[in-house]
Specification:
Shape: elongated
Structural class: alpha/beta
Number of strands: 12
Distance between the termini: 45 Å
Strand content: 15-25%
Order of helices and strands: EEHEEEEHEHEHEHEHHEEH
């Protein structure tokens, strides 16, 4: 049997060039679901917010019929689709992430902004999926095959290549600007930072820092000490610029 598909907005980035921003017909297996065909065409299911089959909203488990016309939409920024069937059953109450092995720079920036972000450079796909399900985390990756795993319900394919641009992309896409709590988490450990008296960390500070700074925070996991030096100011400037573009 054959069905006709049309993908909208950024979902076209996953398609072969000749199929972008236009209708196209493809053969389907008789037991094919919308999820099966959407992912067979290259689009991870976590990128999809709404599916219309012959004008009616459906879920991922809808069985396609010969001649069906399927429209697939990403996350809506302005259009109210409350009366329609969203393909995810529930939103995540807390915004927290798990990043794949290639997104260490992005993980550090998200932690800098105060977002709980798990990351290791040796995570396997199965570990990431298990963590996402167990903790209710959004998967961040540049691997579309990872996002096709059935157990992953919330995920973002990261289009940008550099960490600063990746951060701006995620802030804009998930509307995070109002949720930022900068410099509350350790960028290395993802653990909470807390203020510490200068006298308690004095011996661990370079002489120039001892002379010029009075306020410090520390991480109980890795023991690192942070102060508002030049590196801190550069990070704050980067964060401000990213939030300006994402707002």
């Amino acid at each position: 049997m054959t069905a006709t598909f049309r993908f909208y907005e950024e979902l076209n980035d996953f398609l072969a060039p000749e199929r972008r921003r236009s209708e196209f017909s493809v053969p389907c297996a008789r037991a094919a679901t919308t999820k099966h065909m959407i992912e067979a065409l290259g689009v991870p299911h976590t990128e999809v917010e709404l599916i219309l089959v012959n004008g009616e909203s459906t879920g991922f488990d809808h069985l396609l019929q010969d001649g069906d016309r399927v429209a697939i939409y990403p996350r809506f920024e302005a259009l109210d689709i409350t009366p329609l069937l969203r393909v995810r059953e529930w939103p995540l109450r807390v915004t927290r992430f798990v990043a794949d092995a290639h997104l260490g720079g992005l993980a550090h920036l998200l932690r800098m902004a105060g977002f709980d972000t798990l990351y290791r450079n040796d995570f396997h796909d199965s570990e990431i999926a298990d963590i996402a399900v167990r903790d209710g985390r959004i998967v961040l990756t540049r691997d579309r095959e990872l996002l096709k795993l059935r157990s992953i319900t919330h995920g973002c394919y990261v289009h940008a290549l550099k960490p600063a641009q990746q951060f701006q992309e995620i802030v804009a896409r998930l509307d995070l600007a109002r949720s930022v709590r900068p410099f509350k988490l350790c960028m290395e450990c993802n653990a909470p930072l807390h203020p510490v008296d200068k006298a308690r960390v004095l011996e661990r500070l370079p002489p120039s820092v001892q002379a010029n700074y009075e306020r410090f925070t520390t991480c109980d996991v890795c023991g690192r000490v942070f102060w508002e030096g030049s590196h801190w100011k550069k990070m704050r400037a980067l964060l401000a610029e990213s939030l300006r573009k994402g707002d």
